[in-house]
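This entry is retained here.
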Amino acid sequence: MDWVPRLVRARAHQLAKATHSLETHLGRKPTGKEIAKELDMDMDEFNRLRRDANAASLVSLSTKYSDGEGEKDIREIDIIKDQRSKNPVIEAQKRDLKSLLTKGLTRAERLIIVLYYYEEMTMKEIGATLDLSESRVSQMHSSIIQRLKAQMNTRKKEFSVSRS
């Protein structure tokens, strides 16, 4: 019932045995060249063997691990991080912070903050979008940031994390 051909399993075993033997003899992890020499192979053949041997190992995503504290078992699939998806908690925090910060701003001020920090546009691009000069956008941005800093300082206690 093994999906890996017998030859590939045998070669993977041969690779593991040679690696273990060299580790014991050298007292350290052997290099690829040392393993290839031990197996009497050229590097291309050795790399092919190593690639095939890696394909022979499978990890079950439904393997259960006990957390040691009772009933809750953790499966492999529960702890694998999807590198392509965004963390929903961080996205919600960003959205909340964005609405909190832009709450007391005019439409133009809100647009400047959103375009600069969220859309990553330059002051020149924002000026062209809002029909303002680059220097006026820069002045407004500085003024907005000063007001937001003052607002954040007055609401500092709301943002602090209680440690109990």
The chain has a mean pLDDT of 81. The first strand starts at residue 64 and ends at 66. The longest helix spans residues 6-26.
